[in-house]
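Hello everyone,

My group is preparing for a crystallization screen and wants a predicted model to guide construct design. The compound we'll soak is S-adenosylmethionine. Before spending weeks at the bench, it would help to have a computed complex in hand. I've included the protein sequence and the ligand's SMILES below. Output in structure-token form would be ideal because that's what our pipeline reads.
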Amino acid sequence: MELEFEYFNEWARDSLKLDLSAYKEKQLQRRIGTVMNSAGAKNLREYAHLIQKDEKVRRLFLDYITINVTEFFRNKEIFQEFETVLTQDLAKRFGSLRIWSAACSIGAEPYSIAMILDRHRIQGASILATDIDETILGRAREGLYRENELKNLTPGDLERFFTQEDGHYRIAERLKKTVTFQRHDLLLDPYEKNLHAVICRNVTIYFKNEAKEDVYRRISDALVPGGVFFTGATESIYNPAGYGFKKLSTFLFEKV
Ligand SMILES: C[S@@+](CC[C@H](N)C(=O)[O-])C[C@H]1O[C@@H](n2cnc3c(N)ncnc32)[C@H](O)[C@@H]1O
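Reply:
Good plan to model first. Here are the tokens for the complex, ready for your pipeline.
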């Protein structure tokens, strides 16, 4: 099986432009095994062939291995800390903010940031929101959510930031306008520069240490001095100075 995975990784890099070798092995192999079985393929070569020729199988594969779980204001207390830094510090120091929500899934994260900016009447900010998964970005652009995806929002938020449509909630057009969605692979694509805040949460947990460290270094390079990096609740950085960061709190780091 080991050799088969080596072959599959190489094939994925060449054919899908996907660097599977940077993801934690056991976890990834388990997920690939499950999705391969459900496609009815007997081995990875056969599965690669199926992915190649059938768009639907390819989409299912990408959706399954990229784990899209997310929430608006995920880990509320921590998001509150980010809100304070964003509105009381960054907005005052930098004026027009350039913000990047990396690995944004269905858009709950960048739209949460757009809500904060709207509540505080912070104008001129732009939010770039990226993910490796085109299907999920389609949902993010559409901005239509089920009630169970909105659990951290108050009735007031729902009224202010959404319109109801057949039991679903559609994000307000003025919030949509502040967010640009783009496909971006954190492992293979170049990063933006001169950003004031980068939010990259709950994705590096799937990467091997070397890949994770590389992502942190590149995020640091993407920020202006004084810019802030917001990590996930299980992804605190133990040697921030090694990446040119100063620790502000457990999950917030300032570029020195
Ligand atoms: C668990 S979700 C996290 C969503 C959001 N950041 C949050 O914390 O709620 C992980 C996201 O990472 C994306 N992802 C996985 N590998 C990626 C990569 N190499 N580059 C960019 N995004 C990736 C997945 O498609 C998925 O949407």
